[in-house]
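user: can you give me the structure for this one chain? tokens are fine.
assistant: on it. calling the predictor now.
[tool input]
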Amino acid sequence: MSLGPVMVDLAGIELTDEDRELLRHPAVGGIILFTRNFHSPDQIKELTAAIHALREPRLLIGVDQEGGRVQRFRDGFTRLPPAGRLGALYARDPRRACCASSSVAWLMAAELLAVGVDFSFAPVLDLDRGISRVIGDRGFGPWAGQVVALASAWVEGARLAGMAAVGKHFPGHGGVEADSHSALPTDGRTLADLLADDLVPFERLIEQGIEAVMPAHVVYPRIAPEPAGFSPFWIQEVLRCRLGFQGVIFSDDLNMAAAGAGGGYVERAHAAARAGCDMLLICNNRAAALEIVDAFRGLSDPAAQPRLLRMHGRGRLGRTRLHEEPRWQEAVREVAQLESIETLDLALNDPTDPEARA
């Protein structure tokens, strides 16, 4: 059985019979985990093992473990700093900041891989312009060069641990105030504006081989009429052709308010797939997930399979052995040192709903 094109979620900390039936559906290809699915490292390891035992090839398992206010697993895991803290350090000491970024990503990846999670939906490549509260200190900073440097180091660190990276939110969410979880943001800039600034981190990380990208639920009306995640122009012409991206394209959550621009749930799933998304996320709405997987029964893109399989985690260490590793101990000390570094604008740190898609 191949990996299907739909990524779904779970209600609790263990699989129910209904969950097992859904996860065996041929249209399902992955699971996204949330805080509600987490009780302890041992519990999450048992849950991921149960998920992986259901299918071959095993389903992908992802989570939002960026750090700061978007970190789903906390107790028993290292509390990771927000990307903005690395950006603040970069302003003082770029070399140290890049080394810290690599260490943080390695630590995040190694701890997730040890409990059976394949990847985190990170890093955020949006420029933090001080406009978007939903981005804020989730971004590495306001300047494209700074974001490229820190994100490149972050991706390198994750790869050293055996984890693929997911750059988001293409082509850039930092220029709009509205939160796409609750409204449809509109960015009135031109393509030339975006190519000169917000798209630079995506272009550079694609050149370096980033494995996956997530488009934004943002409309750029001077460029294309649809949100980027439903736009053949953005996904096929710009991302695939102009930038030469060959990796996985994950839709953002089709249950978000901004995704309503694509129509009903099945309509928006088909719109994202037609635009070129390889994997469609539907979160916090089991009824919609059931509608979508039934509509996509038998529909899969053979060209997407090798891309998706590369998202599986590699080189996992058990938690006991990991904690004995000098590199783990060094990375934990690095994170502790970062705690003393203040972010430049604490007003941007208002938390969003902890169960919302990031």
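assistant: here you go. The first strand starts at residue 6 and ends at 8. The first helix runs from residue 17 to 23.
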